[in-house]
Q: What sequence folds into this?
């Protein structure tokens, strides 16, 4: 070993190209100091030379795809069999939901087996010859495209997709079944609302009660310039169904001068200038709560939709799509405000109507 005295870094000649370090201080750069060593010689796999080994690999791949299919069927069976609240002890997880455990396990096996089958197929049965591809301009020539198509066709041929029907069929089966797992879970979105959003609790003869005091309302309780919130009599805030029902039946009452009412039907459905409208905004369903006394406009605080209560609760500003539905009211023999039926149209956002 020699060294260059006086240099900060001693460099061994062994680590330089042959010509470097020659006499007279000249440094010659080798023509190709990092020559491409080339590909190592190709080695056949056992499956390339032994048809029985190839058959064994084929059966392993088919088995993996078959297990995937069975796992997907197990996933669906678990979903319909196990109740959501069934808790069991499973070592080492402890007490867990049998439904969640079985769904996770079967879906995991189904996906794993598809991946494992594909990897085993490519490692043992597909063509293993190394391929070198030189860099070329991004735009491929027609000849290159044709060569690529030919290479693709050859790859398809080499993969054995056409020849190995067992693998092909089980793979297609596994790939076709595994998306069913996702489809089954759509059931968790819940039942369709059917026509539940088209009707409310209101019906003929049902009294209006103050939402805060729960006392039945008389016409004299509704004063000019104030907004009164009401709900159907018999709706108990302690009931399990209360949130669901009040979300549709919530009402607001305002007393107007009959002469201020522009809409004829609105006047007919009112009692002595008292009008009753749904409180559920027709945009996306926030409760309408803000009242402008001077203009008789009500405002939704969520996105500022504004409704004119003197003109059929018409939308005069904001994103709401249609007026607030009106409830026809009258007074019972004993002097209480009561409904004359349900709202004539569905309350709330228009997308509820399409449920
Ligand atoms: S929910 Fe009322 S304006 Fe959007």
A:
């Amino acid at each position: 070993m020699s060294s260059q005295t006086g240099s900060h870094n001693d460099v061994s000649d062994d680590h330089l190209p042959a010509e470097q370090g020659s006499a007279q201080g000249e440094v010659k750069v080798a023509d190709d100091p990092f020559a491409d060593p080339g590909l190592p010689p190709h080695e056949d796999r056992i499956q390339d030379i032994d048809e029985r080994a190839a058959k064994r690999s084929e059966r392993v791949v088919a088995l993996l795809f078959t297990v995937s299919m069975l796992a997907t069927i197990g996933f669906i069976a678990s979903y319909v069999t196990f109740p959501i609240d069934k808790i069991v002890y499973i070592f080492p997880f402890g007490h867990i939901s049998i439904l969640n455990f079985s769904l996770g396990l079967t879906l995991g096996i189904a996906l794993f087996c598809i991946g494992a089958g594909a990897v085993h197929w490519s490692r043992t049965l597909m063509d293993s010859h190394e391929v070198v591809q030189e860099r070329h301009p991004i735009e491929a020539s027609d000849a290159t495209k044709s060569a690529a198509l030919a290479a693709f066709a050859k790859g398809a041929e080499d993969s054995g997709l056409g020849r190995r029907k067992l693998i092909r069929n089980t793979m297609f089966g596994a790939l076709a079944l595994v998306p069913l797992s996702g489809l089954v879970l759509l059931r968790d979105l819940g039942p369709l609302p059917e026509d539940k959003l088209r009707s409310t609790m209101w019906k003929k003869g049902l009294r209006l009660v103050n939402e805060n005091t729960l006392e039945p309302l008389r016409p004299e309780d509704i004063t000019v310039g104030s907004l009164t919130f009401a709900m159907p009599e018999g709706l108990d805030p302690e009931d399990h169904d209360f949130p669901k029902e009040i979300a549709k039946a919530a009402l607001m009452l305002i007393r107007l001068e009959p002469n201020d009412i522009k809409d004829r039907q609105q006047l007919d459905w009112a009692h002595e200038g008292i009008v009753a409208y749904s409180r559920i905004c027709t945009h996306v369903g926030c409760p309408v709560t803000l009242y402008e006394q001077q203009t008789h406009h009500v405002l939704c605080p969520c996105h500022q939709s504004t409704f004119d209560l003197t003109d059929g609760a018409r939308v005069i500003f904001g994103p709401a799509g249609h007026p607030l539905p009106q409830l026809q009211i009258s007074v019972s023999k004993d002097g209480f405000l009561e409904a004359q039926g349900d709202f004539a149209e569905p309350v709330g956002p228009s997308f509820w109507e399409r449920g």
The first strand starts at residue 87 and ends at 90.
